[in-house]
Write a structure and sequence with these properties.
Keywords: Signal. The chain is an alpha+beta fold. It folds into 2 domains: about 30 residues; about 45 residues, no CATH class. About 35% of the residues lie in helices and about 25% in strands. The protein has a two-stranded antiparallel sheet.
C-alpha cells in the first residue's frame, strides 16, 4: 500500500511541475530545457546472462555521453 501512496505523491508532484514549468520559464525562474544538458546512459541486454531468470538487473552500462538537449534527442 505504501508503494501506491508514494506513486500517487510522485505523480502529483510531476504533474504540478509540468504544469508550472511554462509559466516559470516565462518569468526566467528556470533554465529552458533547450539549454540543459543531461547524461545519457545506453543500456545493452547481456545475452545468455544467468541474471535473466532472477530479480537482478540484467543490464550493463555500455556508454556514457553528455549531449545538448537542443542538438540531440535521446533514443527510446
Amino acid at each position: 500500500m505504501a508503494f501506491f501512496t508514494r506513486l500517487a505523491v510522485a505523480l502529483a508532484l510531476a504533474v504540478t511541475l509540468v504544469n508550472a514549468a511554462p509559466a516559470m520559464e516565462a518569468r526566467d525562474q528556470v533554465v529552458p530545457m533547450t539549454t540543459m544538458t543531461y547524461t545519457r546512459v545506453e543500456w545493452t541486454l547481456i545475452p545468455n546472462s544467468p541474471y535473466l531468470t532472477t530479480t537482478a538487473f540484467p543490464f550493463t552500462v555500455t556508454q556514457f555521453s553528455t549531449v545538448n538537449n537542443a542538438e540531440t534527442t535521446p533514443a527510446a
